[in-house]
């Protein structure tokens, strides 16, 4: 229970711990995620991990033409890039979620400080 006029640091600490636990879970989930990309209308399939490391590559045998390796190369590159984009998007979403959680926690801290010091915003310079 906070003292009169002081922020509830116990609640803020509890919220920070909950946020930390959630971030650890999200990081663990993302680390095990796999992302699939396609080239040639699905004739080439690439799978990458969350870090972008290629973990699997499947090529439809009909694409293997010893006289035209450039087409196959292009389709492989397209599939790997597509999978990499999916991985990057997932990492970006996770980063945005983390930033949103930190911003929410900081907003709670500011509100607590504003309540503790009526008439002086939490972000006001110290000399005011």
TrEMBL record:
<protein>
    <recommendedName>
        <fullName>Nucleoid-associated protein SCATT_22990</fullName>
    </recommendedName>
</protein>
<keyword id="KW-0963">Cytoplasm</keyword>
<dbReference type="InterPro" id="IPR004401">
    <property type="entry name" value="YbaB/EbfC"/>
</dbReference>
<keyword id="KW-0238">DNA-binding</keyword>
<dbReference type="Pfam" id="PF02575">
    <property type="entry name" value="YbaB_DNA_bd"/>
</dbReference>
<dbReference type="InterPro" id="IPR036894">
    <property type="entry name" value="YbaB-like_sf"/>
</dbReference>
<comment type="subunit">
    <text>Homodimer.</text>
</comment>
<comment type="similarity">
    <text>Belongs to the YbaB/EbfC family.</text>
</comment>
<comment type="function">
    <text>Binds to DNA and alters its conformation. May be involved in regulation of gene expression, nucleoid organization and DNA protection.</text>
</comment>
<dbReference type="GO" id="GO:0043590">
    <property type="term" value="C:bacterial nucleoid"/>
</dbReference>
<dbReference type="GO" id="GO:0005829">
    <property type="term" value="C:cytosol"/>
</dbReference>
<dbReference type="GO" id="GO:0003677">
    <property type="term" value="F:DNA binding"/>
</dbReference>
């Amino acid at each position: 229970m906070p003292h009169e006029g002081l922020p509830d640091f116990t609640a803020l600490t509890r919220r920070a711990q909950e946020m930390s636990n959630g971030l650890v879970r999200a990081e663990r989930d993302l680390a095990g995620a796999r992302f699939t990309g396609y080239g040639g209308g699905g004739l080439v399939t690439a799978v990458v991990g969350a870090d972008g490391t290629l973990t699997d590559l499947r090529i439809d045998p009909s694409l293997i033409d010893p006289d035209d390796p450039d087409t196959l190369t292009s389709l492989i590159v397209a599939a790997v890039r597509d999978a990499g984009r999916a991985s990057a998007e997932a990492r970006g979403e996770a980063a945005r979620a983390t930033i949103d959680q930190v911003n929410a926690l900081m907003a709670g801290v500011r509100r607590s400080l504003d309540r503790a010091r009526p008439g002086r915003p939490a972000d006001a310079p110290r000399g005011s």
